[in-house]
Amino acid sequence: MTGTEGLPMTVRAPGLPPRVRIHEVGPRDGLQNEKSVVPVEVKAEFIRRLAAAGLTTVEATSFVHPKWVPQLADAEQLFPMVGDLPGVRLPVLVPNDRGLDRALGLGAREIAVFASATESFAKANLNRTVDEALAMFAPVVTRAVEHGLRVRGYLSMCFGDPWEGPVPVEQVVTVCRRLIDMGCDELSLGDTIGVATAGHVRALLTALHDSGVASSRIAVHFHDTYGQALANTLAALQCGVSTVDASAGGLGGCPYAKSATGNLATEDLVWMLDGLGIETGVDLGRLTATSVWMAEQLGRPSPSRTVRALSHKE
Ligand code: HMG
Ligand code: MG
Q1: In this structure, are strands 165-166 and 160-161 parallel, antiparallel, or unpaired?
Q2: Count of domains in the chain?
Q3: Whose alpha carbon is nearest atom 23 of ligand 1?
Q4: What is the CA(251)–ligand 1 centre distance, in A?
Q5: Nearest CA to ligand 1 atom 14
Q6: Which atom in ligand 1 lies closest to the alpha carbon of residue 62?
Q7: Which ligand gives the minimal distance to the CA of 112?
């Protein structure tokens, strides 16, 4: 049973934050794995529609090597098309000095470096060991901070890795601490292949808290491979996290982790948060319409349960 006009009934629960900032990753994480190149005008329109739906952080693109992620080779064209959206933060992924030069040249105000908790994924995603990747990021973070940029540090494979299996919590905390010590403002904990369950999330967040990382600096980034993304998000909110990554329509995967399926769908997240009376600023109807439109552009339906339920209502 729904509340009014395609919204859930609101029933608050104790021990949760009053507001959640959604870090929308659809245009970057959602699209990076698409085989056929999405026209740059469609990407720009996607970002504009997401902003119009009330998302205030929209990860726009990556300044990586175009051979590694051909879908995002148009970053130079795309960023100026959306760079002046009022009140919207537009972080971009930057792996190295070359990427930072490109981002600074276009006036980006926020970047993300992307480390791995495991050696296998560091090699697959960055052609580096974990140490080499962190050594590559250190000068990037320093220079970005000198330019007054906000810096996020992603950490992939925080729970399990397709080559190495379960990832020990201490291993993750060690790399998290190195990213924080390097100068990252925020950490995004990636369950890149979607294998986490709620107790594991709680264990990692508790260990991070014990290592001195405040929950206000932590974001969670769940994939829904085994249908656990929302349960894991709720566990994280109960641990004091109030920044959640999600991808409109559940788009996504990762080109260098074959078993990764879609990210947590932003609509599924907003449905849960609306139901809990947690403020996000997002208009679920407009967001759903955006994902239905994007699904038409991509030629296949959105995997989001909420998008399907709401778009089949009429
Ligand atoms: P490499 O081959 O080791 O690069 O790749 P290199 O440093 O040896 O340089 C080789 C050539 O690339 C040089 O050109 C450089 O100038 C050029 P050449 O002299 O041969 O003509 N180059 C660049 N060109 C444009 N932009 C750049 C750049 N850097 C070097 N920034 C590299 C190393 C890091 C570049 C490569 O591995 C790469 O681009 N990786 C990115 C992969 C990627 O974007 N993966 C997806 C994002 S991470 C993710 O999805 C996980 C996340 O979503 C969270 C989660 O779900 O867990 C964040
Ligand atoms: Mg992801």
Answers
A1: antiparallel
A2: 1
A3: 65
A4: 22
A5: 65
A6: 44
A7: 1
Residue range(s) defining the domain that contains residue 192? 21-312
Alpha-carbon distance of 38 to 134, in angstroms, equals 31
Q: Let me know if residue 6 belongs to a domain.
A: no
pLDDT(194) > 60: yes
1: confidence class by pLDDT, cuts 50, 70, 90: very low
Taking only the tens place, the pLDDT of each residue in 222-251 is 999 999 999 999 999 999 999 999 999 999
Beta bridge partners of 246: 24
- Check residue 233 and give its pLDDT: 98
Give the residue from 226, 253, 251 showing the smallest Cα distance to 304: 251
254 is an active site residue = yes
Structural domain contains residue 4: no
Q: Is 96 in the pocket of ligand 1 (CB under 6 A)?
A: yes
From 24, 65, 155, 251, mutation site for ligand 1 pocket: most ligand atoms within 8 A of C-beta = 65
Q: Residue 99 C-alpha to ligand 1 middle, in angstroms?
A: 8
The pLDDT value recorded for residue 312 is: 80
CATH number of the domain where residue 254 is located: 3.20.20.70
Which residue type occupies 235?
A: A
Confirm whether 15 is domain-assigned.
no
If you measure from the C-alpha of residue 60 to the centroid of ligand 2, how many angstroms do you get, rounded to a whole number?
A: 14
- Taking the model in full, what pTM does it have? 0.96
Answer left, alpha or beta for residue 138, where phi above 0 means left and psi between -120 and 50 means alpha.
alpha
Whose alpha carbon is nearest atom 11 of ligand 1?
Answer: 65
The H or E element that residue 202 is part of is helix 198-210
Pairing of strands 150-156, 160-161: unpaired
Is the Cβ atom of 254 under 6 angstroms away from ligand 1? yes
For the segment 77-106, the average pLDDT, to the nearest whole number, is: 97
Is 275 inside a domain boundary? yes
pLDDT of amino acid 145: 98
